Amino acid sequence: MNFSRRVTEMQESPIRKLVPFAQAAKANGKHVYHLNIGQPDIETPTSFMDSIRNFDEKVLAYSLSQGMPELIDSIIQYYKKYDMHYEQDEILITNGGSEALLFSIIAVADAGDEVLVPEPFYTNYNGFSSAVDVNVAPITCKAEEGFHLPSKAFIEESINPKTKAIILSNPGNPTGVVYTKEEIQILADLAKEYNLYIIADEVYREFVYDGLDYTSFGNIKEIEDRVIIVDSVSKRYSACGARIGSIASKNKELIKQILKLCQGRLCVPTLEQVGSVELYKTPDSYFKEVNAEYQKRRDIVYTALNEIPGVLCKKPTGAFYVVAKLPVDNAEKFVTWMLKDFDVDGATVMLAPAEGFYATPGLGKDEARIAYILNEDDLKKAMYTLKIALENYPNKTL
Amino acid sequence: MNFSRRVTEMQESPIRKLVPFAQAAKANGKHVYHLNIGQPDIETPTSFMDSIRNFDEKVLAYSLSQGMPELIDSIIQYYKKYDMHYEQDEILITNGGSEALLFSIIAVADAGDEVLVPEPFYTNYNGFSSAVDVNVAPITCKAEEGFHLPSKAFIEESINPKTKAIILSNPGNPTGVVYTKEEIQILADLAKEYNLYIIADEVYREFVYDGLDYTSFGNIKEIEDRVIIVDSVSKRYSACGARIGSIASKNKELIKQILKLCQGRLCVPTLEQVGSVELYKTPDSYFKEVNAEYQKRRDIVYTALNEIPGVLCKKPTGAFYVVAKLPVDNAEKFVTWMLKDFDVDGATVMLAPAEGFYATPGLGKDEARIAYILNEDDLKKAMYTLKIALENYPNKTL
Q1: d(Cα B161, Cα B217) in Å, to the nearest integer?
Q2: In this predicted model, what pLDDT tens digit does every residue of A188-201 receive, in sequence order?
Q3: What ipTM describes this predicted complex?
Q4: CB pairs < 8 Å spanning A and B
């Protein structure tokens, strides 16, 4: 039996092929510090389960395709704190940020069209695009520049009549970059000049460190009709398993078009929406605490990386990731070696090789993403283990 | 700003444009009997909420992309009762039957390919297909024949090298048809001869009346590598708001390909899976009760329809729908008239005009779908109201 070209060509998760090595390591009694995944260890606010436990409808019926009005209202109130102003008919609730991205891509690009994406990028941008025959055109960003954007002229070279949108995450997964106001403005100018949408994945909006200013695309009034804000409760409230995301846009006609896609899948789960109404009411003190915790972890990781000879890594300022250039021949081989042939006192480390986060062939081979989602103690041990691993790896380049 | 061709051309829900008329009727104090929607009134088994209330993980983490092993196991056990035998790596949990359909279509058809669908069909087959640039080629079925399939030779005429799959619901939404073993065998033979997949939407599997035999595509061993079974807890356990569906196929490589799409959207909500594990353990006595209730309702609707002069409708034997040919110029106009200009003792009826369930232009204009999802008393009153409406409609054709 044949499969479609689009599904066969779809990239597998770059982390997934290393999972069997991690499982084997654990089966052999090795402890594996998982710095490879984006699953936070922070507790989900209890308001989520509390409100779900109180749900007592006898029939678990379909909810509205657009989403529960109470949840949309809760999100409207949340956005106001960031000087982003949306109305009820400018927001759609989706199955996670994932569906928000997929539907946005379908709505702005036809088969054969292109989307511009700064690389390294969240792998699924490529996955969703190729599933619906849209091509990703990468804008290469460099570790040496902390993965900030290249010049306007450089980006411009990648734009052609097939280009329909720029997709980016800010703060960035996998890089931890937070774009400056100037960078946001450059993209806004390009969007206007070349008639592009901006699909702004801002699910890490609160995860910005060092007191840095954060500019949302929802704050750039002059291009509000071409901005699609993608959001999610997953990282914001450590509720990855809820799968509640959203699309917000001042372009009401766009929302109407995407609503047709929402109607096709009928609705998003009722209970998870009930819980998320409360999540979006979580007091700001929660973010302060979580933020302080992540900033501390970021410092541990960044400091440790900079003490390892040959590692290149500018200080990341957002999300809970960093991409570091390692003094190794090949990061995937290095991670495989750590899992198979290395340990310090029975423990080893798993990172996500960064090659899969690039669309340009050959890039990122000596880079890896580190997610700082472990507690302080474990994180310190993990970074120490990584240091020793880099000293002992037989194919190091230093 | 422009939108993609595929989203702008996507059909809106055929029921949705009548909703404002229903809202206006209610605002004017009219009671509206909703026979237009597929939201059952049966209570959801309490085991669903009970197990969710007991969920006490501190972090609501991502679950596996394939789905929770416990839920997959629960579904495996459920299938065994129907002599359908699946293994853990032959089932994927999806966001409702909707996502199961969308992912199946993406996996077997590329942009420009075709899927054969008996019409009238569940509108979203068309919606999902067009969203991913797949064309629906209808196999026209007729009210006069109870919407059973035409001859093998007739179906064959619609097959061409672009045809990749046959999609159908059995029991049928919107028609209530249950295909005979012979009809299933004809489709199986065609699938084999022309190298097609069969995407079998069997979400109404238990809703079969009159003690009729039911043949699942999961029982046709000779084509097991080309069969994709789509299922859902929505109708089966009256849990439409849970959005838990599944894909089952003996074609392990196909499951692996679709798993890549599942990985792209990370996972299905954790809590809803926890609840669904229990739903799939619901004792068979539940189906017996529910079945008896629906059969009683089916009898009320069918008897009432046959007593109305000019109505054509063969006895439906499955799901909770029937498509009837009405003695009116245009079913949409008729339903609009009922909502705007008609009532019996302050009550009126809403049906789903059937034109939107057809892909062939012009078909179904004088047909409507009736969903029997009201209790006995209300259903009797609704059918009486419909009878009076047909007597009084100014543009009747009889």
Answers
A1: 23
A2: 999 999 999 999 99
A3: 0.94
A4: 228
